[in-house]
Design a protein that fits this description.
This protein has 299 residues and is an alpha/beta fold. 36% of the residues lie in helices and 21% in strands. The protein has two domains: 25-87, Sun protein, domain 3 (Alpha-Beta Plaits), CATH 3.30.70; 90-297, Rossmann fold (3-Layer(aba) Sandwich). The strands form two sheets. Strands 5, 6, 7, 8, 9, 10, 11 and 12 form an eight-stranded mixed beta sheet that branches. Strand 6, helix 7 (138-151) and strand 7 form a beta-alpha-beta unit. Helix 9 (203-221) packs across helix 10 (243-252).
Length: 299
């Protein structure tokens, strides 16, 4: 709370804190590699979940998103089992759209986890080019393997690395058109789903995280080719993990410059207005809390 009250006007801070106490909706991403449109998927879901039909709606900002009531049991639904839908918060979808990969490009998802964004990027690229999903966890990548099978994607390559300075990373220096760094963070933007996170953080753990985030961003930036884009993202609300990390990086890496999110969103018809950074809050946008910085390698 002390950090929020320093970052925001008091009224905004109170609204944000209150929104983090409310339960989050379930958000889905429609898999555009499959044949069904968003409207067709919504109609099928409404026919299945008749009691919740009025609350199954398109998401406001992502044109591939669907919002459902929390707890809707979709895991055994044919649409889920056949890979037509994936669980993904609308804010996470917007981060994938911010990277705006094109057909045939080389894309790195540097902290891929279980691969929600890798799968979204694969679909945006229409199964062309190559998405490299990097992660330190074999278990998380195994989860991605299962999801990939359902999705119909064939352009994702999984790479387990020991850390951000792994030789596998160094061998791919300067090869990528797009790099996504979904950095480990406090996760305070997801308190609606993970309320216990607020008890796990200390000043010391935050300081250690910021050092790690800076190291990961530096390593991932080496993958980006000249003219390529890099998105640094967190699901945190704290300036230290967000602007602080990016601005420190830019002072040390003059070969990168910042692009406003509107540079991409206007082309995609996404009606959100941000200055230097993407900042999503449950109180304003109905998504989890997310931060995104769009950088371009200029030399």
């Amino acid at each position: 709370w002390e950090k929020l009250i320093k970052q925001f006007p008091e009224k905004e801070a109170i609204e944000l804190a209150q929104s983090l106490l409310l339960p989050a909706q379930l958000n889905l991403r429609v898999n555009t590699l499959k044949e069904k449109s968003r409207d067709e998927v919504i109609n099928e879901l409404r026919q299945t979940f008749v009691d919740a039909a009025e609350d199954i709606l398109p998401t406001e900002h992502s044109d591939i998103g669907i919002a459902l009531p929390r707890g809707t049991p979709i895991q055994k639904h044919p649409l889920f089992l056949n890979g037509n839908i994936e669980v993904q918060d609308e804010g996470s979808q917007l981060l994938s759209l911010l990277l705006s990969p094109g057909r045939g490009q080389m894309v790195a998802d540097f902290c891929a986890g279980a691969g929600g964004k890798s799968l979204a990027l694969s679909a945006m690229m229409k199964n062309t080019g190559r998405v490299y999903a990097f992660d330190i966890s074999e278990r998380r990548l195994a989860n991605l393997k299962q999801r990939l099978k359902r999705s119909g994607g064939s352009n994702i390559m999984m790479l387990r690395i020991s850390n951000e300075n792994d030789l596998k990373v160094k061998r791919l220096k300067g090869k990528f058109d797009r790099v996504l760094v979904d950095s480990p963070c406090t996760g305070l933007g997801t308190l609606r789903r993970n309320p216990d996170l607020k008890w796990r953080q200390t000043e010391q753990s935050l300081s250690e995280l910021v050092i790690k985030q800076a190291a990961i961003l530096k390593a991932a930036s080496s993958l980006c080719k000249i003219g390529g884009y890099l998105v640094y993202a967190t699901c945190s609300l704290l300036d230290e993990e967000n602007e602080g990390v990016v601005e420190e990086f830019l002072t040390q890496h003059k070969n990168f410059s910042i692009l406003p999110p509107n540079f991409v969103f206007e082309k995609l018809g996404i009606k959100l207005d941000f200055k230097n950074y993407l900042k999503l809050y449950p109180s304003q946008h109905g998504t989890d809390g997310f931060f995104g910085a769009l950088l371009m390698r200029v030399e």
